[in-house]
Amino acid sequence: MTVKINENYLLLKSNYIFAEINQRVEKYSKENPEAHVIRMGIGDVTRPLPQAVESEFIKAVQEMGQPETFHGYGPEQGYDFLINQIIEKDYKPRGIELERSEVFVSDGAKCDTGNIQEIFSLDNIVAVTDPVYPVYVDSNVMAGRTGPMGDNGRYQKLVYLPCTEENSFVPELPQEKVDLIYLCFPNNPTGTTLTTAQLKEWVDYAQDNNSIILFDAAYESYITEDDIPHSIYELEGAREVAVEFRSFSKNAGFTGTRCAFTIVPEELEGYDAQGKAFKLNSLWNRRQTTKFNGVSYPVQVAAQAVYSSEGQREIKENVDYYMNNATIILKSLKDVGLRVYGGVNSPYIWIKTPKNMDSWQFFDLLLNKSHLVGTPGVGFGPSGEGYFRLTAFNTLENTREAMKRITSLQEEI
Ligand code: MLT
């Protein structure tokens, strides 16, 4: 016996939440083959790629088949044709100026939010909202930054910022100094948001405490209300304290195609043990050029097509389609007397479980009685206990059918 494992992995909960749900649903479906199970658990889209994206994607694949237009390795950071569109169309209209060197195209916000912790020391104190997208926590557990999980379901060295009905899902600033802060708004899983003034408090906190905010904005295209920032860089001072993660998954249907990007401003700095400053941009660039060979050429061409006028029209239609589902879900659940949140600036609806059921009891009730799959809130952290998440990403037909089934459960909820 010579090969030793990374024992930090033993500190993880046995299964990634969505893998656990899949196992349970597969078992149920095998035992109940006649049941038409509707999945509103994992946040995966159902609408196909926009036509404008599909046609450019095909053309780019054909280019790859011809000697004159073939592409081998591309720049690890992404092709300029896509980076320029990101800067011009996503950021400039909001008054944000970015350099090309600050944009890193990647294969997903999940990968980037999971990998970013590598460029930071293991000594940093990490804060996460609770509930939280599990990737932020698990990637820090794997790295050895968290210590073991206590009986309260919390990793001992992480700082948890509870987001519950009591604080309207707005995290309070930490009492102690923290170094790294993961924020995701519009939030996964609660579907709630921060106003400009509320997010400004975090930017100010980070400025005052020399902290770095890791801001996940994967759901920004679902914002419908005014006064909700689409990018953290809309706030003054954020360039000095925040990394931002964006994705084509949820707005343009790239969950299976894979393309995203991360902004690391040149101003961002971290320090070595002697207190010497280093640019986070250079560290991330070093990390990416070593461990990543870039997103494939056809996929980046496909992502560029998202920014064409046709692409923009189509992705808006898709987002509107899902938000119509969200409206139907919110109304139906309110009509049966459930307390529900999110769903206005987000494709996620966060439900307070009825009758003091815990999250998994409610999961079992919906699966067994309604053949409906959602995500137990406790899977996102201890403060998610007693909550449950549904997504608006299914088809309109399935969403309507699912709500009919929940309505007929009225007696039990
Ligand atoms: C979720 O359901 O929370 C999503 O699948 C998250 C993700 O995009 O990985």
What does this structure look like?
The chain has 413 residues and is of the alpha/beta class. The chain has 2 domains: 7-48 and 310-407, Aspartate Aminotransferase, domain 1, CATH 3.90.1150; 53-307, 3-Layer(aba) Sandwich (Aspartate Aminotransferase, domain 2). 36% of the residues lie in helices and 14% in strands. The site of D-malate has 6 residues, from loops.
CATH superfamily of the largest domain: Type I PLP-dependent aspartate aminotransferase-like (Major domain)
Which bin fits the share of residues in helices? 25-40%
Integer average pLDDT: 97
CATH topology of the largest domain: Aspartate Aminotransferase, domain 2
Give the neighbour order of strands across the main sheet. Answer: 2-8-7-6-5-3-4
Number of domains: 2
Biggest sheet character: 7 strands, mixed
Order of helices and strands: HEHHEHEHEEHEEHEEEHHHEEHEEEH
Ligand kinds = D-malate
Inertia-based shape = globular
The N- to C-terminal Cα distance equals 54 Å
Strands, total number: 15
Layout: helices, strands, pairs:
Blueprint: H1 17-31, E1 38-39, H2 51-64, H3 80-91, E2 103-106, H4 109-115, E3 126-130, H5 134-143, E4 159-162, E5 180-184, H6 196-209, E6 212-216, E7 242-247, H7 249-252, E8 260-263, E9 269-271, E10 277-279, H8 280-291, H9 297-305, H10 309-335, E11 339-342, E12 348-352, H11 359-370, E13 372-373, E14 375-376, E15 387-391, H12 396-407
Parallel strand pairs: 1-13, 3-4, 3-5, 5-6, 6-7
Antiparallel strand pairs: 2-8, 7-8, 9-10, 11-12, 12-15, 14-15
The chain binds D-malate.
